[in-house]
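May I ask for whichever protein you like with its backbone structure tokens?
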Amino acid sequence: MKVLVTGGLGFIGSHTVVELQNKGFDVVIIDDLSNSSIDVLEGITTITGKKPDFEQIDLRDKVSVQRFFEKYTDVSGIIHFAASKAVGESVQNPLLYYENNLGTLVYLLQELQKKDKAHFIFSSSCTVYGQAEQMPITEGAPIQKAMSPYGNTKQIGEEIINDVAKVSNISAVLLRYFNPVGAHESTEIGELPKGAPQNLVPFITQTGIGLREQLSVFGDDYATPDGTCIRDYIHVVDLAKAHVIALERLIEDENIEKVEVFNLGTGKGNSVLEVINAFEKVSGQKLNYKIVGRREGDITEAYADTTKANDVLGWKAELPVEEALASAWKWEQKVRAK
């Protein structure tokens, strides 16, 4: 079976392609290269010894999506990463997020539902919980009103998939993950955002290497032990492996429901200052950071209850945050040395 990975040259997508190919899957990637580089294809090939098929397509173009499926008739499984993902940017430019994150999902599902049997893995997010009332967050936690347009697109995306699965042969797994960080141990692939990073760890590594003058810590007056936001930072390789396990679960008809939901995290929360301190320890670099005002759309804390993923999906995060930060730092050093 050929598996389509949308956004497959992005951070999480590229690591997932590696894990898929290591498990023997035949992969085709769609990416519009808006927040990724074609060089990542070479990195994937170096790691796995196999070059995946690649199509540069903007999924907002419905005709291009239709033509893709006419060409790749054997695609019956999709892992869907392609989406805009920055909370702050989504507040500033909501229509971009609604078009890019929801329109593209609809076009993919329209083609997939034509299949006799199809599998769909959705890149969802812990943002669907908003500011959860209890920690750690279980899959049964109420879906709160979204704190940002980005979070709203993930909520609506899940609803769309549930509605389509009821009336089609599509089975799906919604993976709600927390904060992916790190890089592949080979340093062939890692997180390399275009422009200013929207996530904490690449901003930390870019500040550490001297690319950014100063790291802004958004708020130190939250109701947490050190006043900074708490998140569940999960190594991207652990996260990638969960997508492969989820796809195999659907292929082997092991899913209990037509649409299943799993949290992917470590089950442990770290504050922004704790991550900064851990980075300084593993890198030997002193970071120039400054406390600034809160950022709109940010929640106080979020970390996962991973019991269901551990027991039902048969997956568990194994790599600690220190190892993730060390790998991210090695990746940053390699990239800037070129």
In short: The chain has a mean pLDDT of 96. Residues 94-112 form the longest helix (19 residues).
